Amino acid sequence: MKTLIRWLINSLGVIVIAEILPGVEIKSFFTAMAVALVLSILNLIVKPILIVLTLPITILSLGIFLLIINALIIQLASSIVPNFMVSSLWTALIYSLLLSVMQSFLQGLFETDQQDHEH
Predict the structure, then answer these.
(1) What is the C-alpha to C-alpha distance for residues 59 and 111, in angstroms, rounded to an integer?
(2) Residue 8: what pLDDT?
């Protein structure tokens, strides 16, 4: 149940950020759900490989290169999921930053709400 709720929260974040950020287009909430799922899979499988391959650059940049990796993951998702378009790498970078902030906020809200109901 918790996984389903996180997926829906991530889907909500995906579509809200797409609505406010020029250069990102998502056709429907179902597309947002697909994007959230694909991003989860890419972050689980592809991102660790990219991190290992770019470790020297990441160390030299003090971790800032991880932002580029996140943007590349967004770009890859846009090439996999139909009806999800990201106009540029810079847009993908901003999108990934905003999405991370929104997901943290929404998940924090959800966890706080869950804790309130438990006590």
Answers:
(1) 33
(2) 85
Q: What's residue 115's pLDDT?
A: 61
Can you give the pLDDT at residue 97?
94
Residue 85's nearest CA partner among 41, 22, 30, 43 is: 22
Which residues of the chain fall short of a pLDDT of 50? Answer: none
Which amino acid is present at 21? L
Domains of the chain by residue range: 2-112
Burial class (CB in 10 A: 0-12, 13-18, 19+), 119: exposed
End-to-end CA distance of the chain: 20
How far is the C-alpha of 97 from the C-alpha of 88, rounded, in Å? 14
Q: From the CB of residue 74, how many other CB atoms can be counted at a distance below 10 Å?
A: 23
DSSP state of 81: S
